[in-house]
Specification:
Elements (H helix, E strand, L loop, with lengths): L20 E3 L3 E5 L4 H10 L2 E2 L11 H7 L6 H4 L6 E7 L5 E5 L31 H5 L8 E8 L1 E2 L4 E8 L2 H11 L5 E8 H7 L12 E8 L7 H12 L7 E2 L3 H25 L4 E2 L9 H15 L4 E6 L4 E6 L4 H20 L18 H4 L2 H14 L15
Antiparallel strand pairs: 1-2, 2-6, 3-7, 4-5, 4-6, 8-10, 8-11, 9-10, 9-13, 12-14, 13-14
Length: about 400
C-alpha cells in the first residue's frame, strides 16, 4: 500500500521459505513467510481463530507484523500488536533476538505521544520501559527482520449474526454507528458510502438504488440471550434503515458473500485507478471515536466540492478509521487530489488522530510523519534506528529519508 518493501537500492530479502506453522493449544508459531490465509485455515481446523483480519489474506505474517495491520475485526479485537506474544528477529549485524512480551529493551527511550485512536501505525511507538515486541511491531522492517512469531489464538466463536444494512442517507447511517457501537459481541462495523455502492452495483445487482450508504455488521452471539435478533429489528427501525432491502446471513455461504462484497470494493477502486492511468490516492487516517462524525462531515464536504463522482469512502467506521479514495482523471486532478489528502491528514491530526492507522507510511507516505510528530520526536525515532541499524541498511527510505 505504501511502498515499504520496494527497494531503493542494496539487496532484497525474501522470506517466502520461512514457512514454519505450528498450532498449539492457544498459540501459533508462525514463520514470517506464512500467508495470513494459511494461518487462518490451520487455526480453524483446531477450532480456533487468529483475530486480525486484513483485507489481503495473501499478506505474509511478517508483513502484517511490520505494519501492525488490523482489518475489519479490529472493532472488537484491535490490531496485530495486541496478538503478538513473541518474536524472533534478525538484526542487521547478524545477531538473532528471541524476545517475548515483557522483555524490556536494553537502552533508554523517551515517551512519544500516542493519538487517542483505537489504532496507530505511524513511526515507532516509544515509551520508557517498553518491551522489544512493541518496538518491532509496526516498525516496517526498519529495525530488524522478523523471522518468526508466536501469536495468540482465540476459541472460534459459535453462532454469528451478520448483515449488510442499507440506509437512505449517510446522516441516518452515522446516527446508527453511534447507537450500535455498544451492541454486545459486535466485532465488525464497516462502512461503504453511496459512491462505493455505485461502484459495486455492476457486480451486485441487488444493491438497492435508494441506498445512501451501508454498514456491514458481524456479531458473536455466544453468551447472548435469544432476544438479540429482536433487538436488531428494534435497532434498525430506530435508525430508519432500509431493513426490507438489507441482506442477512442464514449460512456460512452468505457470510462469505458479504466478505466478497466488502473486498470487491478496493479491487474495483484499484481497477479504476489503473484504467485512468494514475496512482490511486488513498488515505489511512483515523480519529478518536468521539470525533468520527466531525471527520466524516469534513470528508464529505470537501469531496463533494472538489471531486464530485470521483471518490469512494469505505472502511472501519467502528474505529473512526475509514479509507478515502480519490480517483483523478487528469494530471491537474491528480496534483489537487494529493494536496487534498494532505489537507485531510492535517485535519485528522488536528482532531487528535493519526496519519496511519494500519498500513504504515512506507516510502510513499513517509512525508506524513512530520504532520504527526515534531522534529525532536522524529529525531528520537531516528536515534533508535541508528542504534540498531547504524548504517541505515534496512528499509532504506522507509519512514525516514536515507542518511
Amino acid at each position: 500500500m505504501t511502498g515499504g518493501r520496494v527497494a531503493l537500492g542494496g539487496w532484497v530479502l525474501t522470506l517466502e521459505k520461512l514457512r514454519t506453522l505450528e498450532i498449539q493449544e492457544s498459540t501459533a508459531i508462525v514463520g514470517a513467510g506464512v500467508p495470513l490465509a494459511g494461518l487462518q485455515a490451520a487455526a480453524a481446523r483446531s477450532g480456533r481463530f487468529y483475530a486480525p483480519d486484513p483485507t489481503e489474506t495473501g499478506a505474509s505474517i511478517g508483513g502484517t507484523i511490520a505494519t501492525n495491520a488490523s482489518g475489519s475485526r479490529s472493532f472488537r479485537y484491535g490490531d496485530t500488536r495486541r496478538h503478538v506474544l513473541g518474536l524472533r528477529v534478525a538484526l542487521v549485524g547478524g545477531k538473532v533476538l528471541d524476545v517475548r512480551r515483557g522483555d524490556a529493551v536494553d537502552f533508554d527511550v523517551p515517551a512519544l505521544p500516542v493519538p487517542a485512536t483505537t489504532k496507530h501505525s505511524a513511526g515507532f511507538r516509544l515509551r520508557p520501559g517498553m518491551d522489544w515486541v512493541d518496538l518491532f511491531v509496526g516498525s516496517e522492517g526498519t529495525l530488524g527482520v522478523v523471522l518468526r512469531a508466536e501469536l495468540a489464538l482465540l476459541p472460534a466463536p459459535g453462532e454469528l449474526f451478520a448483515g449488510v444494512v442499507f440506509f437512505p442517507s449517510e446522516d441516518a447511517l452515522l446516527e446508527a454507528v453511534d447507537a450500535w457501537r455498544p451492541a454486545p459481541g459486535l466485532r465488525m462495523l464497516e462502512f461503504l458510502d453511496q459512491p462505493s455502492l455505485g461502484l459495486l452495483r455492476e457486480r451486485f445487482g441487488d444493491v438497492p438504488a435508494s441506498a445512501g450508504g451501508a454498514l456491514l455488521i458481524e456479531q458473536e452471539l455466544d453468551g447472548l440471550d435469544g432476544e438479540e435478533m429482536d433487538r436488531w429489528e428494534e435497532r434498525m427501525q430506530a435508525a430508519g434503515a432500509l431493513a426490507e432491502a438489507s441482506w442477512f446471513a442464514a449460512s456460512e455461504r452468505d457470510r462469505e458473500r458479504f466478505r466478497v462484497f466488502r473486498h470487491a470494493l478496493p479491487e474495483r477502486v484499484n481497477e479504476i485507478a489503473r484504467r485512468n492511468g494514475f496512482q490511486k490516492l488513498g488515505s489511512d487516517y483515523a480519529v478518536p471515536v468521539a470525533r468520527n462524525r466531525e471527520m466524516m462531515l469534513f470528508y464529505r464536504a470537501r469531496l463533494e466540492a472538489e471531486f464530485p463522482g470521483k471518490s469512494a469512502v469505505f472502511g472501519h467506521i467502528g474505529d473512526a478509521h475509514v479509507h478515502v479514495n480519490i480517483l483523478p482523471e487528469t494530471p491537474a486532478e491528480f496534483e489537487w487530489g494529493r494536496a487534498l489528502m494532505i489537507e485531510f491528514a492535517r485535519k485528522a491530526v488536528e482532531l487528535g488522530g493519526t496519519v496511519s492507522a494500519e498500513h504504515g507510511l512506507g516510502k510513499r507516505k513517509a512525508h506524513l510523519l512530520a504532520l504527526q510528530y515534531s522534529p525532536a520526536e522524529i529525531e528520537a525515532m531516528k536515534a533508535v534506528k541508528r542504534r540498531l541499524d547504524p548504517q541505515w541498511l534496512l528499509g532504506r527510505g522507509t519512514l525516514f529519508p536515507s542518511e
